[in-house]
């Protein structure tokens, strides 16, 4: 199911939207405060953030900026706003929002906007992989730990890419040895793999999402 975080302080609106979307096979988690949503966002990556831009304890812009810091463009942000003024809309886009819907809105319209953003983000996600604090941009062959770009060797990059492509699955040392190679195009040996993994961990600041499965292999998984 598509996981959506919905930030809304109006309980009636929140319940109507949640019911409508869940009937369409979406998993909706409702938060009535910016603080609660921030805490949840740091624990888990949703597939879309739906947020009232003006909340009693803060602004949806804070959440949007947090999402962009954590996952770049992988999580689309859709604002709900009671104001249709140009300044309000432009301000939201400047903070990273992807689209907006003005209250009051028809649920069918909201649903169509959500589907459009999910289709767009699925194309983006093909080029961007993430796990925990790490993100990998296939197009640029760039790796980031939070906002810091990490310089990796060709071998280290290949190892990380293979692990992230198989997030949630254990990749055996044998698989790594068969599928990665050094800068000269040669398959690596067991000792080279051990050294490369050690250097990779160090460069990535020993991320908790990179697990060692003793005497077997490695696995990337989201930390709970």
UniProtKB/TrEMBL annotation:
Domain named OmpR/PhoB-type: residues: 126-222
CDD domains xrefs: trans_reg_C
GO cellular component terms, A-Z: cytosol; protein-DNA complex
Gene3D superfamilies associated with the record: 3.40.50.2300, 6.10.250.690, Winged helix-like DNA-binding domain superfamily/Winged helix DNA-binding domain (1.10.10.10)
Response regulatory domain location: 3-118
PANTHER family, per database record: REGULATOR OF RPOS (PTHR48111), TWO-COMPONENT RESPONSE REGULATOR ORR33 (PTHR48111:SF1)
Name of protein: Stage 0 sporulation protein A homolog
């Amino acid at each position: 199911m598509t996981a959506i975080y919905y930030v809304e302080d109006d309980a009636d609106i929140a319940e109507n939207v949640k019911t409508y979307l869940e009937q369409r096979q979406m998993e909706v988690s409702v938060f009535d405060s910016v603080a609660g949503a921030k805490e949840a966002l740091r624990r888990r990556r949703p597939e879309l953030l739906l947020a009232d831009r003006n909340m009693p304890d803060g602004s949806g812009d804070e959440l949007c900026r947090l999402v962009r810091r954590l996952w770049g463009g992988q999580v689309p942000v859709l604002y709900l706003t009671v104001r249709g003024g140009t300044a309000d809309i432009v301000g939201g886009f400047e903070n990273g929002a992807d689209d907006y819907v003005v209250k009051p809105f028809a649920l069918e319209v909201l649903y169509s906007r959500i589907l459009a953003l999910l289709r767009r983000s699925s194309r983006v996600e093909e080029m961007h992989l993430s796990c925990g604090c790490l993100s990998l941009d296939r197009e640029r062959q760039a790796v980031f730990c939070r906002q810091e770009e990490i310089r990796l060797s060709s071998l280290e990059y290949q190892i990380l890419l293979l692990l992230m492509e198989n997030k949630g699955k254990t990749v055996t040392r044998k698989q790594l040895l068969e599928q990665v190679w050094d800068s000269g195009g040669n398959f690596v040996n067991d000792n080279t793999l051990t050294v490369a993994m050690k250097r990779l961990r160090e460069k990535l600041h020993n991320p908790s999402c990179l697990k060692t499965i003793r005497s077997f292999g490695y696995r990337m998984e989201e930390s709970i």
